[in-house]
Amino acid sequence: MARAPDHRAERARDMFLTGKKLVDIANELGVPDSTVRRWKHTYKWEGERSKRKGERSEKKTNARKEEKKVVADEVIQVVDNPDLTDMQRLFCILYVRCFNATKAAIKAGYSRNSAMEQGYQLLRNPSVRDEIARLKQHRLNQAMLDEADIFQKYMDIAFSDITDYVEFGREEVQVMGAFGPVQVDDPETGGKKTLTKEINSVRFRESNEVDGTLITEVKQSKDGASIKLADRMRALDWLAEHMDLATAEQRAKIEHLRAQIESLQPDTDNNQPVKYTGIPSTMVAPVFAPVVFDIQEHRHTEYVFPGGRGSTKSSFISMEVIDLIMSHEDMHAVVMRQVADTLRSSVYQQILWAIEALNLTDEFRATVSPMEITRISTGQKIYFRGADDPGKVKSVKVPFGYIGILWLEELDQFVGPESVRKIEQSVIRGGDVAYIFKSFNPPKSANNWANKYIKIPKDSRLVTESTYLDVPQKWLGKPFLDEAEFLKETNSDAYENEYMGVANGSGGSVFDNVKIREITDDEIAQFDHVLNGVDWGWYPDPYAFTRSHYDPARHTLYIWQEYTCNKQSNQQTAEKLIELGISGNDLITCDSAEEKSVGDYRAYGLLARPAEKGPGSREYSFKWLQSLREIVIDNVRCPVSAQEFVDYEYERDKDGNVISGYPDGDDHCIDSVRYATNRIWKKKGQ
Fold it and tell me: Which entry of 117, 320, 409, 410 is annotated as an active-site residue?
């Protein structure tokens, strides 16, 4: 009997013909993406959409012609500019429309991964800056305004005052620690007193009290809010060129203001370094305030920062690296992670953020090949290296002075304390003063070397633990706080480890190499060694299917898809796998204990094969999984797998001693992964 048509398929077709994306249709109907793709292919929706597009094409063609006429005058002069490349010309046009350098760089054709850096470099290019300035002026001239309106608006810009928008000054505040205000000994009373400090304070006026048309940018970030007013000097230049429109009183007022502003402009002709006054106290989380003073007085050489998510430890260290570069003109820095490929998207971008946050963009030049950041006025360097290539670490040669700053990010990912010690000996050399920063999110297992490392006291080491609770809530935002509270309610152990930085594993964990994090769609799109496994089950043991990707170069396994259920027939689970996108070309390695089930899957069109077992194969497969550098699991996509791998521990006897061997139970996704990787760990030498 033919299956009745699925009414969801008809709804999906109607949405597709209106132009909706397949992924949006799937989300709205609550079905997998692969199901919508199958409907599209089966019912030949593409042909219907093509017919509808043809009917609308003539109208759209006319609309495009009108649009091209509108932009033609604006673009033609840019196209004729011989000082710019094609991509630079397009960047200029896009930038004056959105005033976002990263967004304009992406739309102009630059790589998404390097767009932030490319936008930064383009805005420093004199030819690009000149073209952007000309385009801005052109757009103003095309506005539907009369002469009086334009002149008055430029007058408003030229005479704008920052005190109309904010109040600022100095105030005395308490120094806050992890458990509240910091208490110090009071020699006068013999008791304790609260430590205070004087800070810069800024308070914004209400939006209904200010002229919002003179504000060009309002920015809210984890470091607070800021506003940017329109360029007063540019407004004065325009007014000077159109003084014939002004009254005598306006002319006198404009000339007086110009004289005042020009007298305050810095001398930029002597190539003097940017005037730098240090890290603003408002950009430092209270928990790190004592560390700032400790670093300034150089009480320690090594500063270790274990902390949970959102503790801003990386932001603080990145600013300290820049602050030390600005304070020690003979000192260079090296920033490292274990794997070189992770540098560009993490610490490199973090240092660029710190430079911008400290308003030092014009003082530094950044390059990717080689990956370095140079202080222009002094020639100081910040080098980026991966510990997976020891030769490049040893080959760092500074042009003068010495390397006195080292930052090891994600310390727990380095091979071990001996490896870290060798890195320090190779990098820190030639000077009397050094600053070594180490940061990491504490792994779950208390036996991890990084967790043990910080428990050993050392006179030259300062350990500062931090969590997101030590950070002003406005820096983190509501979505971050909501996610933390949700995890706290649903999985308190995971919350304590991820957000509070607690190594709450019992020490008997079988898999100390598990890393729980998001696996992005971009990563999945690059997976080319996909492995599928099935562990049969009915009740109470569940059926478990997993998809994973093995990267032999990094000796890392990524688990990114799962499906578990109870009391489902082989036909039902097979249909579910097909819905998830599994085709007849995807090999599925199954538990060989149920040969009939393997045969059923083949009958349903799936490429199923039994796992190869034998004496000792279970123990060997567990040891292979334990030997991996990392088992990365997306706990959103694969919550059951994440729970099983994290909670899987050795059994203990009545005295608490660990019993050798691997326990049986609550390991169905683990078994599915073992079967999926069967062909790898069965090979000799793997």
Answer: 410
